[in-house]
Each structure stands twice: as C-alpha cells, then as structure tokens.
Amino acid sequence: TDDTRIRAAIPTIKKVLAEGGSVILMSHMGRPKKNPDPKYSLEQIVPAVEKNLGTKVEFAGDCIGEKAAEMAKNLKPGQVMLLENLRFYAEEEGKPRGLAEDASKEEKDAAKKALKEGPQKEFVKKLASLADCYINDAFGTAHRKHASTAVIADYFDAGNKMLGYLMEKEVKAIAAVMEKPAHPFCAIIGGSKVSSKIGVIKALIEKVDSIIIGGGMTYTFAAAQGGKVGDSICEPDMFPVALEILELAKQKGVQLVMSPDALIADAFSADANTDVAPADNIPDGWEGVDIADEGKKAFREHILGCKTILWNGPVGVFEIDKFATGSKEVALAIAEATKKGAYSLIGGGDSVACINKFGLADQVSYISTGGGALLEYIEFGDLPGVAAIRD
User: Fold this and answer.
1) Angle of helix 349-357 relative to helix 371-380, nearest 10 degrees?
2) What SS3 state is found at 95?
C-alpha cells in the first residue's frame, strides 16, 4: 500500500551495484506467527522493488538454508536477490513461539534465553555467511535488537559493517532536532494512548518549549483532571502519569497545549452523527474523534510561532475523511511554518501517512521512515541498530 521504505533504500542499493557489488536484501513484513506464512511473504514486494530499482530481483524463497546459500554464492556483480521474511523464524526476534498461554514469566524468560543462546546464534551465523559486508539501512527497525538489525553486526569486522545512506540521513535529521534546535521548539504528539508515549513525552519536556497533545491521549489528560469524556478512548490507569506529566511540564516551564474543543461522534464510523463539545465535557454515548474549530485555531497559531517542529501522531481519526480535518490543519500549519524558515521533522507511520494523504510531503523539512525508532532515539539517545555498527 505504501512503498516509502522501499524507495528510501534504493540509493544505498544502487551505490553497491554501481561499485561492482552484488546485493542480498533482507527485511521484515508484518508479525507472522509461523514459517512460512504466505500472507506475509516478501515475494509479493518483488515487483515494487524491481520497479523502483530498475533491476531484476531474484527471490530466494527462504532466508537461510541450502537454496539461499547457493543463490548467494552464485550472485554475479550487479545482481540482486531478496531473502524471505526474516520474521518467519522466531530466532529473528528472539521470541519463542508455541509457549502455553498460561506460561509463567520464569518459563517465558527461560525459553527466550535458550532461544538466544542456541538457535538464534546459528540463525545469525547462517545469515552472516551469505555476504562479505553488512549494511543496515532499516531505520524503521533500528530500535529492535533483532538478529538482522543488531546481533548480525558482531559477525563482521569494523571495515565490513556500515550504515546505509538512509540511516545516515535519519540520524542526522534527529540530531538536528534534538541536539541544537532553533527555539521556540514545539513537539506535536498524537496517537491514541498515553501509555505508549510516556517515555518520549518526559524526554521531550527536557528539550522543548511546548508540546501539543492530540489524538485519543487528550481524553486521558482531560479525565485525569476531572473532566467528562463520554465514550472517548481513555486509560484510567494512566491518570497518575498524566497528572505527573502536567506537573513536570509546569516545573520545567514547558507549555502543554491541548484543544479546548472536540469533534464528537455517536459511532466510530464514516456515517456517524457528529457534533462539537468541550474536550472535557463530552456527553455519554459520544466520543472524541478530532479537534474542532477552537483547537484548530489554537494549534495553528502555536505552530506558526515555532522555529523547530517535531510531529509524531495524528490529532484525530485521520483515516476517516470527516475526522481528518484537524490533522490536515496541523499538516498545513507545519508546511506554512516550514516555508517561513522553521525546521520540521515528521516521524511515525501515521504522521507520514497524514502528510502523504494531504499532499504536503514536499513542503516539510524531513520525513522519517521510522516511528518507534524515532521515539526511542529521542527517549534514550541511541538505537541498538546504530550502536551495533559503531561499537
């Protein structure tokens, strides 16, 4: 449905081919629970890779085994082969499969340890044996310490393991935002759950001048302060965390901006009835699905006053057009601020999809290919996939 990540890897692949090398591509797709699972086979992306690369791509049908090894051995300069989905093997993620649902934590930990100490090492060894050099250009999974994104680097010496062009660009783009940003610096954090963004919000409070909170998270913050949010998505167990974030922002002098109003719907569907209500006073039977006019105005004015802008996560259910106007207004404001000289970094699958949906991809400074990786880099200051190459 979206070939952004394929296109992003093309310059690195072309560089290797132009210098007389042959290329073995390996990647992930979905979260398959068995090997093989045709639904998640990488064979279906071969046409897209060939189209973007302009070169025939041979499909291995597996990522290890005799056939893959034979194909790799016989590759000639200028040729490209694609391995099957690495996640068909539990060894890739280091997560055992087939454990009983009621297995204890001790049993799960023991199974994970056994997998990593034995089968995963063999898996990585077989992958590494296919090639002379290792290039990591998968920023979207650089935050995972998986076999192919971090562990494999140990099997190549310093001169034969490197970052690809995309990884280099991604790391530089984040550094531009996090190390020496122009102020005022605003982060727009959307998405449905506070629980998935706690760490990054706390990390950003140390760096930014303001944070715009949007999406379903809004209603957890509203309810934590005694508001009424109807049937909106809400995490009551996160109320203490929401209040802690509000207090932390106050102590650090960071402005938290939230929409005063919400577009509400009586069902989660395109043909639902809609209305507008205060974001902290939504009637029962209704749920917040987007920001409304006051929120759009507030967010726009705030964004236009910033010199550095980081956007991760839509501010409404942008997949449904009538609930996407708030996210579109945010995207338009970011594009306008960028035109006036601000640096804008868009990261995360949904934010990228938003920018693409509204046709504004060429009007922002940088679009990151990794959501989880971007957030983890902000939170921890490094990524396993980058550290593995450097160390």
Assistant:
1) 130
2) coil
Q: Quick one: pLDDT at residue 381?
A: 83
- Which 3-state string (H, E, C) describes 355-376? HHHCCCHHHCCEECCCHHHHHH
Catalytic residue among 5, 87, 161, 197: 5
Active-site residue among 21, 61, 78, 372? 372
Query: Going edge to edge, which strands form the sheet with 80-82?
Result: 23-25, 80-82, 57-59
Query: What does pLDDT average to in each consecutive run of 10 residues of the chain (391 residues)?
Result: 88 97 96 93 97 97 96 97 97 89 88 90 96 95 92 95 94 86 95 88 94 95 97 96 96 96 95 96 97 97 96 93 95 97 88 88 90 84 89 75
Helix-strand-coil percent breakdown of the chain, rounded to 5?
45, 15, 40
Q: Is residue 5 among the annotated active site residues?
A: yes
Q: Which of 121, 193, 307, 322 is catalytic?
A: 193
Q: The pTM is what?
A: 0.82
Active site residue: 94, 349, 371, 385, which one? Answer: 349
Q: How far apart are alpha carbons 171 and 373 in whole angstroms? A: 10
372 is catalytic: yes
Let me know if 94 is a catalytic residue: no
Active site residue 390: no
pLDDT tens digits, one per residue of 160-175: 999 999 999 998 888 8
With contact defined as beta carbons under 8 Å apart, do 196 and 379 qualify? no
